[in-house]
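re: that chain from earlier
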Amino acid sequence: MTEEKRINLKIIPPERYLPYVVVAVAAFLILFLGVLTINKIKEGQYIGQESQYKNTIFVSGQGKVLAKPDIGQVVLSVISQATTAAAAQKSNTEKMNKVTKAMKDLGIKEEDLKTASYIIAPRYQYISGRSNIIGYEVTQGLEVKIRELDKVGEILGQAASAGANQVGSLTFTFDDPEKLKSEARQEAIDNAKAKAKDLAKSLGVSLGKVTSFNESTSDDSTPVPMYSSKEALGMGGGTAAPDIQTGQNEIQIDVSIAYEIY
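^ sequence. v structure.
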């Protein structure tokens, strides 16, 4: 006869063990998230907004390029006065048309001529504290790009002869300065790299990747001061061409570079 064994099973109700399970899972999640957060903080030392906490060195460099300008720019102005605005406009237009024609006759292309300003303003006379309009003044400026720099003096002389009575903002610059800027930039970067290598050697560290780069550009194409003369104003005298020297322009680029060190 087969012996039968009786097995007693005791079932624990869920409400008695579930709280312990919940506590255990919560503790595990807190531990996991804590470790993850610490790792992310460590990673953050090298990326994004935490980059200031890296071990870095900052160096600066400067590059300069001297070159002879290949274009000149000048504003030729005609100032006309008359008792009425219409008369001042008529006189001004006639003179400016002559100036424009003179420029084209000297080989200035139409695309290198541009009206820079056109102003009509009343002229006042002040008597016993009161102002009265006594006429009008029209000022028109023509911006001229000069590609043949050996003609600068001749162009200014012919402009005055044609009726321009004010000359200003004469500058000498480069039609395409990007190539020269690239040369100056490379010189500045090489200069900064050399400083970084010397500094790293002195500190006994190794250079890592570049973490930041900034640059600024400057040039010395300062405008020649505006002038008006009796000859240019048509009040007597000749129209001798002024002797204009173009000289050389300097393009300077300064860079600032940050390197990781380890």
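The domain at 69-175+225-237 is CATH 3.30.70.2970 (Alpha-Beta Plaits).
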